[in-house]
Amino acid sequence: MWIYEKRLIYPVDIKKPNLYMATLLNAQYGGENSELSAGVTYLNQRYYMPDDTVKATLTDIGTEELAHWEMLGSMIRQCIKGASLAQIKQAGLSEWYVSHRCATFPSSQGSVNWTADFASCTGDPVADLMNNMAAEQKARATYENLINLSDDPDVIDPLEFLRKREIVHFQRFGECLDIVQRKMRNMDNGNGVSQPCS
Amino acid sequence: MSNKSLLMEISEIGFICTDLNLYLDTHPNDNAARADYNFFTGQLRALKDRYNMECGPLENFGNAINADGWEWNNSPWPWERK
């Protein structure tokens, strides 16, 4: 069960339309390492995880990712809203306009729509937690790239917040990995082979 | 307190709670952190109750009263909030 709160997890207030940044921010809204991919990946991994600490962490980080996804949607909308047709053409967004007008849509690089292929799940706790750690680092790097390309403090400030959260999530998943590896060593007498369908 | 500064305070205390929550997930025996979490959870609840009363419902699905008509639709959406 989830409850919506009518607020962003961190404030977003972009005053100047910025189609250039709107396009780039889509990487984190609908790209492979987007907040959406992270949210779906973590919430989906919970059901089979062998440890309650990991289930709690996946639930809570997955929930936070959805709040981050809403931040990105808000940022992109504020960057697009109020742009003229001439600005849309100039920014190379005519095809976007044909399909979505001035709406947000989980798609990156103009044409790659979000797909469940971006949501990772092998069913193996170690592999999946390592995947999540890598995903957090990739998202951190993406935020740094976006910050480097932006000159608007209203865009940079929320990106800095999001970047820092990736680092915290990476830390928490690393702790989960330690817990799971210790537990698995105890469960299988150290032979390293998991049950076929646990 | 204005709508905006109360909301900022909710953001700040809410962030403390979120971060402590994640920390406690993997450090459940840290009683000092748990005491902090419980303290700020009380503060956050009080701030949200105040916002719900003074500025319209921040929460839906039975977590806030709509005293003056169905206010949920009308209070500003977060991506539109100035």
Structural class from helices and strands of chain B? mainly alpha
Shape of chain B: elongated
Shape descriptor of chain A reads elongated
CA-CA gap between termini of chain A: 25 Å
Q: Segments of chain A where pLDDT lies below 50 for 5+ residues?
A: none
> Structural class of the helix and strand makeup of chain A?
mainly alpha
| Largest contact between chains | A-B, 28 and 28 residues
Overall mean pLDDT score of chain A?
93
Strands of chain A, total number: 2
Which strand order do you get reading across the main beta sheet of chain A?
1-2
The biggest beta sheet of chain A reads: 2 strands, antiparallel
H/E element order of chain B: HH
Order of helices and strands of chain A: HHHHHEEHH
Count of discrete alpha- or pi-helical segments spanning 4 or more residues of chain A: 7
Q: Oligomeric state of the chains? A: heterodimer
- Radius of gyration of chain A (CA) equals 19 Å
The share of residues in helices of chain A is: 55-70%
What is the CA-based Rg of chain B, rounded? 15 Å
Mean pLDDT of chain B: 93
Q: Which key phrases capture this entry?
A:
heterodimer; A: 198 residues; 63% helix; B: 82 residues; mainly alpha; 2 helices; 60% helix
Structure description:
Chain A is mainly α and 198 residues long. Chain A is built from seven helices and two strands, in the order αααααββαα. Chain A has helices at 19-30, 35-45, 52-80, 85-90, 94-100, 125-149, 153-187, and strands spanning 107-108, 112-113. In chain A, α2 packs antiparallel against α6 (125-149) and α6 (125-149) packs antiparallel against α7 (153-187). Chain B contains two helices and no strands. Chain B is elongated and about 45 Å long. Chain B is mainly α and 82 residues long. In chain B, α1 runs antiparallel to α2 (31-55). At the A-B interface, α3 and α7 of A face α1 of B.
